[in-house]
Amino acid sequence: MESKGSLFVLLIIVVILTLTLAVMAGYLFFVADTQQTNISQEEDNPTPKRPADEEISKIQLFDNNTFFNLKSEDGKTSVIQINAELSYFKKVKGIKNTEQKITFNINKIKEIIGTYFQSKKFEEITQPEAKEIANRELTKKINEYLLSNEQGKDDIVYEIVFDKWFYQQ
């Protein structure tokens, strides 16, 4: 009799463990998979949505003959010739007139860009991702400057497009 009782208890324990395992597997399959899918969808789209054309204005920063000397440690003269277009938001919360703000600060914006290139070495400028890095870093620096005396903290400058990027050593 005693062996039938212990066999019955063992059978009950096995059934409970099996059911627990099935519930955990179901949870992992249905609930955790959904959370992972949401996370991977967020990672797949890290860049914000591009604004509509009506929300953006553009201004040409340099003519075709703008050269900047690059940083040199070996005495060689290296230059970059660029043509840049600044894209900025027409309306930014906390700023009355963004076009007027850009126009008023255009010379400082050009100075920021010139100083940026004068601090770069020829080897940095020739990298395949150099335009993208320059766009990102200059956009950040210009936004920091333009917003330094404003209450709002939304970016004004959307991007800088370099339609001419010619360098020579």
Task: Characterize this entry briefly.
By secondary structure, this protein is α+β, with helices and mostly antiparallel strands.
Describe this structure as you would to a colleague.
The protein has 169 residues and is of the alpha+beta class. It folds into 2 domains: 1-46; 53-168, Tetrahydropterin Synthase, Chain A (2-Layer Sandwich). Helices cover 50% and strands 18% of the residues. Strands 1, 2, 3 and 4 form a 4-stranded antiparallel sheet that branches. α3 (106-118) packs across α5. The longest helix is centred in the N-terminal third of the chain and has 43 residues, at 2-44. The mean pLDDT is 83.
Helix content: 40-55%
What is the strand tally?
Answer: 4
* CATH topological fold name of the largest domain: Tetrahydropterin Synthase, Chain A
Return the CATH class of the largest domain. Answer: Alpha Beta
Q: Could you state the order of secondary-structure elements as H and E?
A: HEEEHHHHE
- Pairing-aware structural class of the strands and helices? alpha+beta
Give a quick account of the main beta sheet: strands, pairing sense, barrel closure. 4 strands, antiparallel
Shape: elongated
What are the SSEs and their pairings?
Elements: H1 2-44, E1 56-60, E2 67-69, E3 79-89, H2 98-104, H3 106-118, H4 122-125, H5 130-147, E4 157-168
Antiparallel strand pairs: 1-3, 2-3, 3-4
